[in-house]
Amino acid sequence: MLLENKTAVIYGGGGSIGGAIADAFAAEGARVFLAGRTPAKLETVADRIRAAGGQVETAVVDAMDAAAVNDHVDSVVEKTGSVDISINLITLEGIFQPLSDISTPDFVAAIGKALTTQLITTKAAARHMAKQESGVLLFFGGSDPSNASPGMGNVQVGFDAVESLRRQWAAELAPHGVRTVTLLTGGIVDTFPDVPEMEGAKQSIIDASPLKRAATMADVGAVAAFVASERGRSITSTQVNISFGACHG
């Protein structure tokens, strides 16, 4: 198993992408700790992992609360001895409008919240990883400056901001043996609502790929598990493109 004896903390672990990554990590032998604000969603993912024979625990944690996040990570390390993988999948509050139509306070609040939660959760894990001289910090979304599209509002700006944060973490943590990797995505179609008005968006993601394919939640989980494992140990300070070539980070 790729992640046997590894400990992974997943913020937003009750969501679709968080759940898919949790499934993959657990299937590869990791002990998974799901954190989020909605107990029912966390338990749905946890029940699925337990039914498959995986190791999982859940905790209600507000990832905007630095004290709560630090207490949770400390408790994980106390139980397991380490935190080997951390990923924050709390969704950016997207405002899909032209920039000229978005109020400045709304724009700043959404970007600020995304950066705040990423900074809090990464700091909590990095504190332990630096002491361990090992660990993997994963990020999701990524930066694709060649693929700007109108009407995306704050979304790509937010991803770019988080990617800039990831680059700074990479520079500071590499001397401590900590790897930082972003999963660059052009959109995960099976997370979209199954309604007629979303079909065009799904098809545009497929059409943007040279292979005319789009990544699925299972693809995200599989790549995340590989990157976080020792087999992916040469991958750091970069983005891994999981968009079937639609993105050019």
UniProtKB/TrEMBL annotation:
Coiled coil: none annotated. The keyword Signal does not apply. It comes from the Bacteria. GO terms for molecular function: oxidoreductase activity. Keywords: Oxidoreductase. The keyword Glycoprotein does not apply. PANTHER family: 5-KETO-D-GLUCONATE 5-REDUCTASE, ALCOHOL DEHYDROGENASE, PUTATIVE (AFU_ORTHOLOGUE AFUA_3G03445)-RELATED. Belongs to the short-chain dehydrogenases/reductases (SDR) family. This is SDR family oxidoreductase. The lineage of its organism: Bacteria, Bacillati, Actinomycetota, Actinomycetes, Pseudonocardiales.
